[in-house]
Write a structure and sequence with these properties.
The protein has 656 residues and is α+β, with helices and mostly antiparallel strands. The chain has two domains: 5-240, Glycoside hydrolase, family 65, N-terminal domain (Beta-galactosidase, Chain A, domain 5, Distorted Sandwich), CATH 2.70.98.40; 249-655, Glycosyltransferase (Alpha/alpha barrel). Helix content is 32%, strand content 21%. It has 17 helices and 28 strands. The protein has a nine-stranded antiparallel sheet, with helices on one face. Strands 2-3-4 form a three-stranded antiparallel sheet. Helix 4 (304-316) runs antiparallel to helix 5 and helix 5 runs antiparallel to helix 7 (371-387). It binds beta-D-glucopyranose (BGC). One of its GO terms (molecular function) is carbohydrate binding. Belongs to the glycosyl hydrolase 65 family. Keywords: Glycosyltransferase, Transferase.
Length: 656
């Protein structure tokens, strides 16, 4: 069971803020960063409610028609973790020792700290905490304080501390200040602009105690945060019992056992643990790029959910998958309005959003990533293939039809076929191009799925014929001389980025070069054509040639990259390369490989590490309800055991 715990020792030398992210507790509705009980100046404490955001106008130096109008920023709520403690009247306590152990089997965080006054009086603080999966309004903490080497007065105060707004200081487009001055009326808190409220209910601790040396005092504290102002009366022990039951069931249906590498075993469980914790469950929230663990990317939902996270949920927790998809059906009207605003038919989903409106202020790497439409359709299709839940799909069919309608109206027929111009593919280091291969391939599938669904449901028959034609005639660029799939019409004509003379500290490139400089060259931020190959097979030789061409041009500056190259490396039989990529994906946040885990977990990569194991090493695919498995295990992994839920039935699979 050892691999079910993650402790400080598993992280190596890391920052306070990384620790806060990695041990954050969340339940899909509420997330709490695991900040220190007595704050350090470097701390960044906070808690978040999924889909709870503040909006403000986007100010452009030069505006243009149709640009996104408002930011939506997930709000950083209270610090529910810090305790005000005085020992013999002294509140200047220094941290002497800390020990953290995350019990992933139970969904509970255990911590132990020793603090001391300047005069040497020491206390031990033991914490046991969880974000309840039984009652998603609750964050619960048990606090035990022990006087280690003195007897006397200890005062202990704990409530909620609002985190006041501060100014943006950093130049890093991937993080934005999330604190907001909320309007407070009794226990009701409201954002000034988006006008969203929540209510808080909690037991305050306010004690002045005489404690003898060696003695302890214990508190059980329950914070309830409700959007509906509905509170129950839960007890700590009952919630804890339920938490353990729920995590037992979670691991029963989702665990992966890896024989041969303990570090990877721990890494993958850590990733699955976070995936389970941060996924929205109510059909009105989704999965932010950083989950509920940090303020990076403003808590926005991207294509990450559909392409990187959904497969894990579809195959192991179909109910969660369904609720993530329901979120898309609930914002369909906004996507319809957006398509209309841009002058096209159907619906265009926002590249990044919480409420459904486009919030990307930089359209070349935002709105222009039209592929999100097809990614969403792909996820619905995968859900249907794996769960057999056609009833849900038919109920949600408008998502598929409206996205197909968009492609049909945005693209056009030429002598070469059906073309899609002026888009950005997944690779954000190449923008506004014609016929991005990934986009065209995904749109082709979107049109095809819409057509099949229309025929099956006997609706939109005339349109379906057009969708079919466009799908059949989709233009997919190929360089015959070089035998390479063209990422887009112009990519192969560009100069290659000067990798040799790019110093290490200039990565990620996006923080050191103007976009125009980056777009001019053959250089990738992340998997693009190779992602299409992961989803839609081409011949082995083709995949190899494309892999060998695109991989050396890829910086992997985006965390969404390595896992995908890993899967395709498995497919082409390069298990050593696959293993290397998988290893990096499995431990990316544990080791802070991207250098910004402090902003929150890299959720898509966590889902990607599941893809690496299942799509890569286990060669998982599904065809007409039949599960296909290939043993692509690298030599380092002796066996792989996992459970999938197919058509509502659990299946255990062992590969060795
Ligand atoms: C990636 C996008 C991704 C976003 C949020 C960016 O760095 O390029 O593909 O959707 O991060 O994770």
């Amino acid at each position: 069971m050892n691999e079910f715990t993650v402790g400080l020792g598993d992280l190596g030398n890391t920052s306070i803020q990384n620790v806060e992210t990695l041990f954050a507790q969340a339940n899909g509705a509420l997330g709490v960063r695991s900040s220190l009980p007595i704050l350090d100046p470097d701390s960044n404490p906070g808690s978040f409610l999924n889909a709870y955001y503040e909006s403000h106008d986007i100010i452009y130096g030069e505006n243009a028609y149709g640009y996104a109008k408002k930011h939506e920023t997930m709000v950083k709520l209270f610090d529910m973790r810090s305790i005000d403690i005085e020992i013999l009247g002294d509140d200047n306590l220094k941290l002497q020792k800390e020990d953290i152990s995350l019990d992933m089997a139970k969904g509970i965080l255990n911590e132990e700290y020793i603090y001391s006054t300047i005069d040497g009086e020491k206390i031990k603080i033991e914490l046991e905490s969880f974000a309840s999966h039984f009652d998603r309004n609750v964050y619960a903490q048990k606090i035990i304080i022990t006087a280690l080497n003195f007897s006397g007065q200890v005062s202990i105060n704990k409530s909620v501390k609002h985190i006041p707004a501060k100014k943006d200081e950093d130049f890093d487009p991937r993080v934005k200040e999330a604190s907001v001055n909320l309007i407070v009326e009794e226990n009701k808190y409201t954002t000034p602009n988006s006008n969203l409220s929540f209510f808080v209910n909690f037991d305050k601790i306010n004690e002045n105690l005489e404690i003898n040396e060696g003695e302890s005092v214990t508190f059980k504290q329950i914070y309830q945060i409700s959007r509906e102002n509905k509170f129950t009366n839960p007890t700590y022990d009952h919630l804890k019992e339920k938490q353990i039951e729920i995590f037992n069931r979670f691991w029963e249906s989702s665990d992966i056992e890896i024989e041969g590498d303990e570090r990877l075993q721990k890494g993958i469980r850590f990733n699955l643990y976070h995936l389970f914790n941060s996924a929205g469950r109510d059909g009105h929230s989704s999965f932010g790029a950083k989950g509920l663990t940090g303020e990076g990317y403003e808590g926005h939902y991207f294509w990450d959910t559909e392409m990187y996270l959904l497969p894990f949920f579809v195959y192991t927790q179909p109910e969660i998958a369904k609720s993530l998809l329901t979120y898309r059906t609930n914002i369909l009207d906004k996507a319809r309005d957006r398509a209309e605003e841009l002058g096209f038919k159907g619906a265009l989903f926002a590249w990044r959003t919480i409420d459904g409106h486009e919030t990307s202020a930089y359209y070349p790497a935002g709105t222009a990533q039209l592929h999100i439409n097809a990614d969403i359709a792909y996820a619905f299709e995968l859900y249907e293939k794996v769960t057999g839940d056609s009833e849900f799909i038919e109920k949600s069919a408008d998502v598929i039809f409206e996205t197909a309608r968009f492609w049909y109206s945005y693209g056009f027929k030429s002598e070469r076929g059906f073309e899609i111009h002026e888009v950005t593919g997944p690779d954000e280091y190449t923008a506004l191009v014609n016929n991005n291969y990934y986009t065209n391939k995904m749109a082709q599938n979107n049109l095809n799925y819409a057509c099949k669904l229309a025929k099956r449901m006997n609706v939109n028959i005339e349109e379906a014929a057009k969708w079919e034609e466009a799908s059949n005639e989709m233009y997919l660029g190929y360089d015959i001389e070089r035998g390479i799939t063209k990422q887009d019409d112009s990519f192969l004509d560009k100069q290659v980025w000067d990798f040799e003379n790019t110093p290490k500290e200039n990565y990620p490139l996006l923080l050191h070069y103007h976009p125009m400089t980056i777009y001019k060259y053959q250089v990738l931020k992340q998997a693009d054509t190779i992602l299409a190959h992961m989803l839609y097979d081409v011949s082995n030789e083709q995949m190899e040639r494309d892999f060998d061409f695109y991989e050396p041009l890829t910086t992997h500056d985006s965390s969404l990259s390595k896992a995908i190259y890993g899967v395709v490396a498995s497919k082409i039989g390069r298990s050593d390369v696959a293993y290397k990529f998988f290893k990096e994906a499995a431990t990316m946040d544990l080791e802070d490989q991207q250098g910004n885990s402090s902003h929150g977990i890299h959720a898509a990569n966590m889902g990607g590490s599941w893809l690496g194991l299942l799509y890569g090493f286990a060669g998982l695919n599904i065809n007409n309800g039949e599960v296909i498995i290939h043993n692509n295990l690298p030599k380092e992994i002796k066996s792989l055991k996992f459970t999938l839920t197919i058509n509502g039935e659990k299946r255990e699979i062992l590969i060795k």
